[in-house]
Amino acid sequence: MQLQKFDFPGPGGHRLAALLDLPLDGKPAAYALFAHCFTCSKNVRAAYHISRALAREGIAVLRFDFTGLGESGGDFADTSFLSNVEDLIAAARFMESRFEGPTLLVGHSLGGAAVLKAAPSIPASKAVVTIAAPADPGHVSHVLGPAAETIRAAGEAQVEISGRNFVLRKKFLDDLAAVDPEEVMRELNRALLVMHSPVDDTVGIENAALIFQAARHPKSFVSLDRADHLLSKSSDSRYAGAVIAAWARRYIARPAAERAAAPPQDNRIAARTGPGGLLTEVRVNRHSLIADEPAAVGGSDQGPTPFDLLVAALGACTSMTLRMYADRKGWPLDAATVRLTHAKIHAVDCASCELKEGMLDRIEREIEIEGPLDEEQRQRLLQIADRCPVHKTLTSEVEIRTRLSEP
């Protein structure tokens, strides 16, 4: 994933700070806009992991700090729910002017309520995702507890939210009260995915039910079982991101025929390892993969190791080769299953190897052949397994040329 920093003018004239998460090859199939949770920032864990998951699927994501938060300008005390909606619309217009309008809108907590409200004013949007969102933005007033009454009586008050102090003014509460949730859902007219945890003790699961019931089809619901409100566990936010990426393809991706007709501009396989670990994103034409290492060697075990991928390539090539050979011969092969293991062994333990010192690689391959084939056919398929192109590559001399690319 590539990351670019931007800032753009907010509706109040101040600058809003943004990050654009791009696919590995830098060529998005679509764009998404992410709205973070109340008093959070663009760097909150949920925003980070969800944006990464979408970028791996070719969807670029713009996440930004609302006015007065994070690196954005302005005074948070001057903001309100509707000003957040205006910030979202300004972000979408910035995307339209620099890239493309966002076809996917994702909002977390109060950000979810904001994307529901903003969607009709963002023409490019086709699909909306809410995560732990209140059905009524006015729900925030209940979260504030006694401070809400102080704000109404005194006009403003300092409140502590997630260990930080913020000044909220009466206009903030008035804006929340002025939003009609039923009208918002009537005007949405976009595909909707509602995600919520049944154990969310900040915004209860009943809010997801109200949003879902008020929405028109197409609509979907996914339970974020055991997750907290902020999706603070990386595994929860990564899961949410993977589900959103899979769901969104149905509504915002270009038709398969159109994608297939467009030749890739760069047919090289690309792999990128960023900061903070060994997790590596791999792009193979239009397909995305990840590689990693076990925690014991410094990885996070989110994907297969490079050697796993290498051995998997041999297994896939072997089974494909058997399939093609059997089809060409007209043999009744129902299925071919290839199971492999890879290990480092001492050279002296390999009687047939020329190398007699140090270590070498051993791949053991077991092939299960299903179907009413006779013994001669089965033995012939065993011989054909060694003729798969990946097998030939691994057992032949390979030249690898390496150079630095120009900056």
The tally of helices reads: 13
* Element order: H for helix, E for strand: EEEHEHEHEHHEEHHEHEHHEEEHEEHH
> What's the CATH H-level superfamily name of the largest domain?
Alpha/Beta hydrolase fold, catalytic domain
Based on secondary structure, the structural category is: alpha/beta
Helix content: 25-40%
Write the CATH fold name of the largest domain.
Rossmann fold
Strand content: 15-25%
Shape: elongated
- Spatially, the strands of the biggest sheet line up as 1-2-4-3-5-6-9-10
What does this entry look like structurally?
The protein has helices at 45-56, 81-98, 110-118, 139-144, 146-154, 170-178, 181-188, 206-214, 234-252, 256-261, 306-329, 375-385, 389-394; strands at 2-9, 15-22, 30-35, 59-64, 104-108, 127-131, 156-161, 164-169, 191-196, 219-223, 270-273, 280-284, 287-291, 335-346, 359-370. By secondary structure, the chain is α/β, with parallel strands linked by helices. The protein folds into three domains: 2-253, Alpha/Beta hydrolase fold, catalytic domain (Rossmann fold), CATH 3.40.50.1820; 260-297; 306-394, GMP Synthetase, Chain A, domain 3 (2-Layer Sandwich), CATH 3.30.300.20. It is elongated and about 90 Å long. The two termini are 17 Å apart.
